[in-house]
Amino acid sequence: MTIPHTSHLSPHWREAQDVAHLEDPHAVRHQGGYTRALLGLVALAPGAMALAAFAIGDQPISYMLGFIALVWALMLLFGFVARVFRNPRLDSVGRWMWVGFFFVAAPLALPAYWARHVFGAPNDAIQHE
Question: How many other C-beta atoms are found inside a 10 Å radius of the C-beta of residue 41?
Answer without folding.
Answer: 11
